[in-house]
Design brief:
It is found in: Membrane. This protein is of the alpha/beta class. It is about 25% helix and about 15% strand.
Amino acid sequence: MSKPHQLAGDTPQFIGNLTNLQYLNLAGNNFSGSIPKELGNCKRLLSLNLGNNDLSGEIPSELGNLFTLQYLLDLSGNSLSGTIPSNLGKLALMENLNLSHNHLTGRIPSSLTNMKSLNSFDFSYNELTCPIPTGDVSKQATYTGNSACGLLSLAIVIVAILMSFGDIVKATEDFSENYCIGKGGFRTVYKVALPMGQIVAVKRLNMNGFMYLVCNYLERGSSRKVLYGEEGKVELGWATRVSIVQGVAHALAYLHHDCSPPIVHHDVTLNNILLESDFVPRLSDFGTARLWDPNSSNWSAVAGSYGYMAPELALTMRVTNKCDVYGFGVVALEVMMGRHPGELLLLLSSPEISDGPGLLLKDMLDQRLPAPQGQLAEKVVRVVTIALACTRANPEPRPTMRFVAQELSAQIQARLSEPFHTVTIGKLTSLQK
């Protein structure tokens, strides 16, 4: 059954009489009321999509009788309440499950570990409590994020379809330091080999109870590790650095402007920008600061990392998307300079910086690389100019990440008005006033 357009009213119960129905897509309409339990009679159904309607009430346990359901069960974007029925664990063929953006409560049923074919799941934006069920799984299921925009796909292990707590303990030998690949303000990261051979990164959150995140393991690790290592000199050329900055800008623009509700990253640093084998950036740990206890005295873990925090945080302790913009600016400068720009930002706080000849841009860039030439030089100038605008002390005139992403991706229309070797930092800051 193909999707109608803006149908309203209750979902018709007679659909349960269509016992030969294989595909049902009623997404994006205005259906209200409860999901009819009669749908459980459609024993040949392969895909069921009721997402983005106004459905309410509980998920009928009869949906667990749809043993042939394989490709999709999507109930997201409704007003469903109550608990997740344990009967859904009978859907052994199910590959994609989406129950996000509802009002579901209670525990994640342990029976869901029986969904051996699950490739992706999303239970986000509900009110679920998350103990870790026990039980073995034969296949890893991941939360499918928007990888095209530079975000790293995350899966909350508390949902427990990935592995049980016992599996994690066994794979890391009780969280041995031998498996630790990184530490942050409120998480420790371990490299874990799953029984089926796949390598993942498990992030153990430093909170009460057992809280974990699982994400794809990227062999190159953080961009900080690459930038300050030998790879930074050999493989991180100017074109690659510009591309990394562009990717991070698009990731933050997605979080700020395309997610509902918008997500503030809280901690934009080189440590949280991971690199694929081809140096494509993936922004990790987005929004995890929301999981932190708001009464915690460890305010740096909540607000971000020293050296990347916006100056207004010292006064207000209020994190906004403009704090992310500032952190992005610091990261962009660091990628271009090959070192943290703290000294430069301190100098820029002086009103005299743009009055004289000032600092030459070529002297501030990473000296391990030859100076960029031609159009590449123009792109580097644009990156630094935008980064300087992002690191303004006053948050109000900082650009939005959508504007930043658009500017960095736009075609360069005009050539430099002067030779690259004469461009000063002072002039670039004056261009943004």
